Amino acid sequence: MRDESLPYNDYGVTMRRRFGGRVQKLSIDAAMSCPNRDGRVARGGCTFCLNEAFSPAYCRESSSIAEQMARGIEFHANRGRTAESYIVYFQAGTNTNAPVDELERLWREALADPRVSGMIVGTRPDCISSEILDLLADLSTCKYVAVEYGIESTYDTTLEHVNRGHGFLDAERAVACTRGRGLDVGAHFILGLPYESREQIIAQMERINALGLTSIKFHQLQIYRSTPMAREWAEYPERFALRGYTAEDYVDLMVDIVRRLDPSVAIERFASQAPRNLLEGSMLGGIKLDRLRAMIVARMRELGAVQGDMATK
After folding, report:
1. Of 140, 115, 119, 137, residue with least CA distance to 128
2. What is the pLDDT of residues 11-41, one digit of tens each?
3. Higher-confidence position of 74 and 313
4. What pTM was estimated for this model as a whole?
5. What is the chain written as a DSSP string?
6. What is the pLDDT of residue 237?
7. End-to-end alpha-carbon separation of the chain, Å?
8. Looking at domain 11-303, which of 3.90.1200, 3.20.20, 3.90.550, 2.60.40 is its CATH number?
9. What is the chain's mean pLDDT, rounded?
10. How confident is the model at residue 1 (pLDDT cuts 50, 70, 90)?
11. Residues ≥6 apart with Cβ < 8 Å to 184
12. Domain parsing of the chain, residue ranges
């Protein structure tokens, strides 16, 4: 249910309602490789990927789950982020890319802490199985469990171009199977990938709505140093339709997206923010995410728009 004070369905509000207070995510690096790098699917990985950009400083893969959780709680407390409970977020790498008994050991360790209300497992649509989903469903009988899939685009031509290693059909199957276990399902998508026009980005919303997601993250394309996409960014700038976008341009794009998004889907993020020392280029410049969110809300209010008011029925 949307908070009527906001023109969109906010993920943070949804989680506070679910848990009766503020919950804080604790990112965990479980030291799992990616099947798109280790040869299980392919080698080389996605052309845009730099794994170190996705984990907070307190995550060290050499540390135990409990140690990372303790550092994460301290990290947030030092920044005034108090919480009634915590959600453990297995974020870096592909967090189902291990034997099921190893996954069970890690996940049970995380959920054993009484301060933890649940966990979110980040993975790929082509790295899930009935056995893993059965385990997650079993764990969800005691605490909250959700799965978050990196889908990135609904276009197979784009997924192939960025060496993603899976197609959109894999995503449709993975989401459907996960929903079938009664688990919440999140997904994230990158806006501005090569060869995708503004019109094509917006046209994806019908297929995204059909997935039946619980939550969604949108990321603007960020170009990480020393990646294949950084070379493409330098050599073929004409492939990136959103390359010259200002914050105002991005706000208008995001408003068009949100208005076409099923209102039942909670929006967790409108954009992402990586350390500047890792970036070769990015849309939005140095605008803070809170400021961007405020601009999107203001623009929607100016238009009298709300999430889903232009969604295909």
Report:
1. 137
2. 999 999 999 998 999 999 888 888 777 667 7
3. 74
4. 0.92
5. ---TTSSS-BHHHHHHHHHTS-EEEEEE------TTTSSSS-SS--TT--GGGGS-TT--TTS-HHHHHHHHHHHHHTTT---SEEEEEE-SS-TT-S-HHHHHHHHHHHHHSTTEEEEEEEE-TTS--HHHHHHHHHHTTTSEEEEEEEEE-S-HHHHHHTT-SS-HHHHHHHHHHHHHTT-EEEEEEEES-TT--HHHHHHTHHHHHHH--SEEEEEE-EEETTSHHHHHHHH-GGG-TTTT--HHHHHHHHHHHHHTS-TTSEEEES-----GGGEEEESSTT--HHHHHHHHHHHHHHHT--TTTT---
6. 94
7. 18
8. 3.20.20
9. 90
10. low
11. 144, 145, 146, 147, 214, 215
12. 11-303
Task: Tell me the two tokens of residue 212.
Answer: 């039946």
Q: What is the mean pLDDT of residues 74-93?
A: 84
